[in-house]
């Protein structure tokens, strides 16, 4: 029952962070998806100590500089918007990565952000 | 004069972010140090749109997951404390990196944080 | 003649590891392809000490966590199947990467694996 | 109680994989150490589908190529020896990383392995 | 006015390095594009001490081994050709990366180079 | 005999690039050292198409941005000096890395360069 509670708590937190997009990501992933729900969201994101806004600032910055993680960057830009970051603030996070990992990773993240904003406007 | 203003603005911002430690880092670095002051601090850190607290959350998360940048992680843990993050909040940022880059980078950052707190107590 | 033997030994090992797919990868690569045959397969993969199954476990894990190497990950998932790993075991290798490099690289590798299995079924 | 079981299962698995060294690593790490026990060992390493020998082949290869994770590489070389890999086989895993990430990371891992073998002999 | 001079000097250097392609890259990037012009080209590329040919040798090698930066690699292969590197010399730079970061990143860069040469011939 | 020739050609090239330091690096590395001599130096560095000066510009830039490869960076700063790069030019290569991978990796490489110059003066 406690195990179920971790999964349930994770699912609720995932919905709070990512909206519907989160569940779309994890549901086809089998056991890997289960661990994302239970551990990433049921354990880590459910902790106190940082706001969801602050956790997504960190997540967007990390996914930008680690490179090659575009699908996850896209999900977390969506999550950032969902927990209250503005597109301008997300652009600012991307600019903040430049001193730490240079221009190429920042350009790729900026391009991803712009594409998402265009898609949103077209909806 | 404008160029001087960028450098001066950068030095002031560097002191605001890092205290004395920042100047100790950049002064032996020649032109590289000049660019850190002018560009990283005079341009990027001087922008609006994110608080210094939020910029350091991003910086600590990035330096943790990029690995192999311990001296800079140490400087930015100090900067984080300087702009108002508590040791507990910095530990929380480190825990937030685990879903994105696994345990080894988080363990190394945690060890760095603990060593700094021990050194602070011994002062 | 010895040099020729390295290349020939490499070609035979490449075929043993990757089947036809290996040759399709290296043949358009000019001298770079020659070195892959001679050095990667003629020297390294031809060594004793680890089974091909074990070498591919290592290769799939490395290509997953290094990120941004999707074409090679795809080739080595194929190689893994070719030397006797089951799709379930490859999924297990991907899950084993999570503690070392987090969820995003594992998700990308899992997605690659699933796409390959769908393509195989459609053949 | 289930939660406790995950932790207990993780501690037992950690001891099976790393011997005493594992507990020495996680015990000073606070909540981060708790997650290593519960998630990395209680969840992931406790799964079927790959032998511990195979999991450590993957771990040593990953830690070698990701670079900047020497303390964890050292722990997992110890773990590899503990689950039955010979020093010669660990050297072979390191040689297997060369086609995937080049010589510098392999040299560093080889140096770590040699230092550990010298320390063992001196005990 | 000095600030304007940095931007102007950067634009001129960008055109010298990348031709028209450079401006196409930076113009949609907002403030990020401004920093690329001012800092990367107005400050760094405008320095003495290395030729543009040597700077692009370094850039192509770095973008190859860092992985996941294909759009920038493409721009800098174009820049390399523009400052006098031959396709054969760029292939040689890519081969030179193999001892440092292995075959997968070199294969991806080689594929990018070949695609660009095919596109050029089709123009 | 041809195989011996690759090794011999590699040893001669290694001495040309690194001086005595190169042999000191590879001789304790067993088969890994043999491959460095044969493949990295006997095959790759022995190719035409780029000068040794240009190959070391690429090598220093790559080792700087890949991070966590300090021992090899040190060897190749020595190699760069050996094939005719001045300390000022090596500093310039390090500055050239900043737009591609940010300040932290450049600071670490700069610190390594300065330490080596101090050690040289003390000899």
Characterization of the model:
The structure is a homohexamer of 123-residue chains. The first copy, chain A, has 123 residues and is an all-alpha fold. The first copy, chain A, has 8 helices and no strands. The first copy, chain A, has helices spanning 2-18, 20-26, 30-44, 52-66, 70-82, 87-96, 98-101, 103-122. The N and C termini of chain A lie far apart (41 Å). The model of chain A has no long low-confidence stretch (mean pLDDT 94). Chains in contact: A-B, A-C, A-D, A-E, A-F, B-C, B-D, B-E, B-F, C-D, C-E, C-F, D-E, D-F, E-F. Chains E and F meet through helix 3, helix 4 and helix 6 of E and helix 3, helix 4 and helix 6 of F.
List keywords for this structure.
homohexamer; 123 residues; mainly alpha; 82% helix
List the helices and strands and how they pair.
Six copies of one chain form a homohexamer.
Chain A: H1 2-18, H2 20-26, H3 30-44, H4 52-66, H5 70-82, H6 87-96, H7 98-101, H8 103-122
């Amino acid at each position: 029952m406690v195990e179920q509670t971790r999964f349930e708590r994770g699912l609720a937190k995932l919905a709070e962070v990512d909206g519907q997009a989160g569940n779309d990501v994890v549901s086809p992933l089998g056991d890997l998806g289960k661990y994302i729900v239970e551990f990433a969201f049921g354990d880590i994101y459910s902790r106190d100590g940082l706001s969801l806004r602050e956790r997504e600032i960190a997540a967007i910055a990390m996914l930008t500089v680690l490179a090659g993680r575009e699908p996850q960057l896209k999900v977390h830009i969506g999550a950032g918007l969902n927990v209250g970051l503005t597109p301008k603030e997300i652009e600012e996070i991307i600019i903040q990565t430049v001193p730490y990992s240079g221009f190429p990773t920042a350009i790729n993240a900026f391009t991803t952000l712009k594409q998402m904003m265009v898609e949103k406007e077209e909806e």
